[in-house]
Amino acid sequence: MKENKLTEIKPNGGYKMHTFEEVKASFLTYIHDKNSIKLIEDAYHFVEKKHAGIYRKSGEPYIHHLIEVAYILTTLQCGPVTIASGLLHDVVEDTDTTIEDIKKLFGNECAKIVDALTKIQRLKLSHRTQEEFEAEDRRKIFLGMAKDARVIIIKLADRLHNMRTVEALKEERQKALAKETLDVFAPIAHRLGIYRIESELEDLSLKVLEPDKYNEILYLLNRKIKNRSKALENLRKKIADIILKTNIKFEIESRVKSIYSIYKKMYLKEHSFDEIYDVLALRIITETEINCYEILGLIHAHFKPIPGRFKDYIAVPKPNLYQSLHTCIVAGDGNIFEVQIRTKEMDEVAETGVAAHWRYKEGETYNPKKEQQEIEEKLHWFRDFVSMTSENQNENAQEFMEHLSKDIFEANVYVFTPKGRVIDLPAGSTPLDFAYKIHTKVGDQAVGAMVNNSLVPLNTVLNTGDVVDIKTFKNSPGPNEGWLKIVKTNTAKSNIKKFLQKKNNELLRNDKISKGRQSCVDFFKERGVDEKEMENLLSTENVLNNYHFKDIDELYIAVSNHKPSPANLCDFLGIKRKETSALNLSKKENTDNDNCPVYVKGATKGLQITLGNCCTPIPGDTIVGYVTKGKGITVHRTNCPNIQNDKSRLIDVYWKNNLGVANYPVDIIIECNDRNDLLADILSTLNANKVKVTELNAKLHPETLTTTVYCQIYVPDVTTLHHTFQILKNVKDVYEIRRQIH
Q: Which residues are tagged catalytic?
């Protein structure tokens, strides 16, 4: 049985400076191969020579920093290539050494790692704002990390030593470095499970950014250690005596919560210091998982556990691989203490995370690609991270960092796939966020969700422990605008926007093909060429090559943009215009049609004028007339797609000045998130504002839990219509309103 006693916590600072001999003594405990030892020694002697005469801000020779980085890497039992690269990480940036030199002297692996680290270092402020510079700087770190996890391990060691010696810098630079450490490096260390580095980075940063609060917590912590150490020691002995009566092998030690962890609970979660039960804790380390649960049973049998404070991270590990049992108990003297129970392997992973799992094993053939793959398989969030980093390289750096922070670093809700895979999401996430975290195609084809074996809406907020099963349909219409209001993660939002953009582009393309084709059909028909003959003529190589189009669809798209026009095509093909009779309009103004709000200057008396049913124009709209032989003039809004194909039939029309108090029909579409009483609320809102409704139909979209409402209302003019739109937008769950064109 191992035991230890709590001692006073000292402020961070006054770190021991190591020599290369101490680095060597550290790595020789697990590296024995002569070639591996030579690689590290050669790297050290190379940088010792190259960095000669170069000093840090503190005044110490620069080589000391490289030695400390290497020493930190040996405490994580990193491999020889990683240690050598740690020694070499600044040599290209600070000396005349090139990447080719590194490759020639130390091999391809070292060269790749040093190159990635150098690219991070070489980012300059140039013309960027400070915010853009910081975002781009951080993205460089993540790009390097996504290619090889060893890059970030070295970068963490580099940052840890820089923070240990930060007092040598000016105050402004200290604060900038500390803030970046809290924003970027500590979260990375946390996600990789390297608690040892994470907690020290956080405490060192807090000491710089909030020195008063740091010292206050340090004082409270040491006072608690002084007052409670005897009570904790008594509890330790009682638990040890209980376990000793069994055959279970164990070690038991005391643990003190980090200063920054206490700071978060006090100042971010607003707990008083005395309300934090796990400031002091006992940690029991045993041999097997079964032993962990056996010890937990013994402790709960002898001490009263605090309800709601038990956590089983063995059955459900954290995304950073952390495993342990946590329970809070009331000791015999009334004091409350946390007890953590784990195996030795779990304890190593808890302290050094991914570095413990991929600790260098001599004699095994090292494969960096295989290691990277294993990391992605073990740390499921890392796969998402690599995917996000590779997919979003062209994205604005600030947006990229926002996506990464929300979707990766702020993820604290853990849900399960039906097969037991853990998916971590930010608070407030829905089944759609879950679907896109699994795969883009799963998200795009999602039509429903089962949570804990119950069918739920896609906008249901997920909680830790939920088992989520997404129902997909390959012929699903896919995402719609309403989904953007449902999802929480930037990953889901980004994929939905890409889908909608692609869909809109396809619809726009098809619409342009249709319009261009119809323009040609109408124009060619006037020249005595039917539709089939027209298509045969336009699809010939002669026409397509002349206008530089690969197929007839591209030609139709160009025609819809009037480049070329149907007339130009007819001229090229030698098709001449037939004689047509123009509409005979007299000079007399049409003023006798009192029932129509529109008139035509110079029109024949008694000419029939009607408002188009397709776009339902109303006073205030910009309008145009469309001449139909034998049927008079139909009035359309100028943006009505039904009149775009034949400009030759259009004529100017005007709204009359004295329209009276007449109302005109308008067809509108209301897009909503579905809920009970939705239609009743829409109808009552319109009635309350004295808007006449003649038609009201709704279509439910069960796959997205949205509803489209088709409605015909009567209003006197465009101003009233816009006012009605604003009123309807105040109805709960209405997110879009637009006019309909048939």
A: 93-94
